[in-house]
Amino acid sequence: YDYAGSDNGADTEQGSTDVVKTALAEYPKGSIVWTRDTTLTESVEIAKGASLYIEPGVTVTCKSEVQVPVEIVVLGNLYCMGTAEKPVVFTSDTKKPADWGGIICGYNSQEVVLSHVDLAYAGATPTESSPSFQNKLYKTSVEDGLPAFFFCNTNGSFVMTGCFFHDNYNDQTYLSGGQAVIY
Q1: Each residue of 42-52: pLDDT tens digit?
Q2: Which residues pair with residue 126 across a beta bridge?
Q3: Which long-range contacts link 175-178 to residues 24+ away (Cβ below 8 Å)?
């Protein structure tokens, strides 16, 4: 479904005050859950205290022909729950390096899980309108591309297991601290 544009086919329980249930699992109240393929035409910002769960087999396609490169900025928590058989895939519509920004985790992002994630074609240079720049997460200038994944909370935790990062324009990962498990 089109996360940024409309609710065409979107799960009606997203962000509700009740427990969010899907065919696969039950998530804490207020969670955002992507259960099917998603196309992003603009950046997504997961607010501080909020959590985005992406279920196994979901493909997130970032549009490349946009004014401001698409970024996924995590100020809260992100859980990509792929499996070896059904990875979570982040890709672009034209499949060229630097088509979109990447996943940038903020200074208050507490938890990030990247389980069996295939992340490709990231590394676009942010603009002054980019959420990573607006939140002062990566650089204070816009002269260089983003890493595919950046975690900057020295008090946060992240797990990266069974991931495949490829065809990205800039570095694959930047880690500024925190408790980490990479396998």
Answers
A1: 999 999 999 99
A2: none
A3: 175/150, 175/151, 176/150, 176/151, 176/152, 177/152, 177/153, 178/151, 178/153, 178/154
